[in-house]
Amino acid sequence: MGCPHRNAKPRRQRRPRRPRPRICLRKGCGRQYLPRRWNQRYCQDPECRRQLRRWQAARRQARRRQNQAAKAQHAQAERARRQPAASLPQAPTKPEVTPTRGHAAKIFLPHPLCDRPGCFEPPLTSVRNPAHSCGPACRQAVRRVRDRERKWRSRSRFRTQRARAREYAADRARRSGQPDNPTRTT
Q1: Are the beta carbons of 97 and 85 closer than 8 angstroms?
Q2: Would you write out the chain's pLDDT as a tens digit for each of its 186 residues?
Q3: Do 117 and 23 touch, CB atoms closer than 8 A?
Q4: Which residues pair with 33 in a beta bridge?
Q5: Is 157 helix (H, G, I), strand (E, B) or coil?
Q6: Residue 135 vs residues 34, 111, 120: alpha-carbon distances, Å
Q7: Helix 136-154 / helix 158-176 crossing angle, nearest 10 deg
């Protein structure tokens, strides 16, 4: 037989895409970090992660408090807790010795929270469209992250590459003040 033929230009292996350095999404952090995955939104600082879990728990609790079934369940549990236990013997107590009990019912987060992690402020109030963020800075930070993730997911698809090219062309035309021409893509 003969010698194995080799191509004149061997194809180079394509390197995997690496995300660029990012800024942590949590409000008040602002650290720049190198993400390990394409959808990583936060730095891996322990304090930042602790604050993030605290915000997530507060948001979960605020959403649960709005649910009617959860309200009824909580009211039933409170009624059961207030019933005196008949099986336990009640020791007589002197009223001047017993400490004062109870406090005013304080709702810690009576309002919904902003969509940006770490932001405990209420969203802006609007009659027509309920807002999800407390202001333009939080809204823009969340929008930037969602756009980046949407684009990262769609990068490998040809159909979405063409759609993204049209989107960029429309943005350029809008910024320059020229009318949009959707048939031409650059």
Answers
A1: no
A2: 566 666 666 667 777 667 789 999 999 998 999 998 888 999 999 999 999 999 999 989 888 888 899 888 988 999 998 887 666 666 666 656 555 555 545 555 567 888 899 998 888 887 777 788 888 899 999 999 999 888 888 776 777 778 878 888 999 998 887 665 555 555
A3: no
A4: 22
A5: coil
A6: 27, 15, 12
A7: 140
